[in-house]
Amino acid sequence: MAMKVKEVAELAGISVRTLHHYDAIGLLVPDEVTEAGYRLYSERNLELLQQILFFKALDFPLKQIKEIVSHPSFDRQEALQLHRSILLEKRNRLDRMLAVIDKTMKQAKGELEMTQEEKFAGFDFSRSPYEQEARRRWGDEAVERSKAKLGSLTKEEQSRLSEGAGEIFTRLAALRGGAPDAPEAQAAIHEWYLFISKFGVYPPEAVRGLGQMYVDDVRFTQNIDKHGEGLAAFMRDAMAVYAGRMQP
Question: Span of the secretion signal (predicted)?
């Protein structure tokens, strides 16, 4: 049974305004809108909303969440399993901290003694290995997935791709003497972003990582710099700026 926006907001514990914003940016578009303008959310919409909120709990930006959940390769079951592992790890960490609190309260009453090590046994500010995996899976892996997709193209497709890339490289090479954050440089990088997005999902971390790879991998540097010496480094800097501006 379809649910109205207010019902969904109350169910999920978020505001109606938040749902309107998700609709406006194309992140969560209700399957039906009545003639009177009422948004109606289907079961599929609710499943997507649940997934969005899981990613938000991991501090993924909305722009990246949209890219992840809308990509054809997105596996909901895999995402749920990873989210579960992250939450279990966090629960275990909280349980350890609660145990330390209980012992500390008893020590304050003189009921037991604690070693210095026991006083700090529950604290661990390192990032969860499961969170690292989540960021690898939906962040830097985009670069590797794109490389694999490029390798599967036919020679004819690769030739057309090379021509298209060459035209953008030429435009960027003409700008490399200027600032990487200049409007014209960012416009050209946006064109490059649209071009590479045909072959994979590139959230901010992946855009930044790809630009760095242009400099770190001599094969990329040599290829790109054929269009103008220093172009690879210029693209790295311009892509870092572009990635920063992708954040919501």
Answer: none
CB proximity list for 14: less than 8 A, separation 6 or greater: 53
**Scanning the structure block, which residue is given the tokens 């770190």?**
216
Give the domain 3-57 fold.
Answer: Multidrug-efflux Transporter Regulator; Chain: A; Domain 2 (1.10.1660)
- Angle, in degrees to the nearest 10, between helices 5-12 and 16-24: 110
pLDDT at 207 over 60: yes
pTM of the model: 0.46
Evaluate if residue 131 carries a pLDDT over 90.
no
**Angle subtended at Cα 242 by Cα 240 and Cα 245, rounded to the nearest 5 degrees:** 110
Burial class (CB in 10 A: 0-12, 13-18, 19+), 139: buried
Task: Give the containing element (helix H, strand E) for 40.
Answer: strand 39-41
Flag the least confident range among 6-15, 30-39, 65-74. Answer: 65-74
The two structure tokens encoding residue 9: 């907001």
What is the CATH topology of the domain spanning 139-246?
Answer: Globin-like (1.10.490)
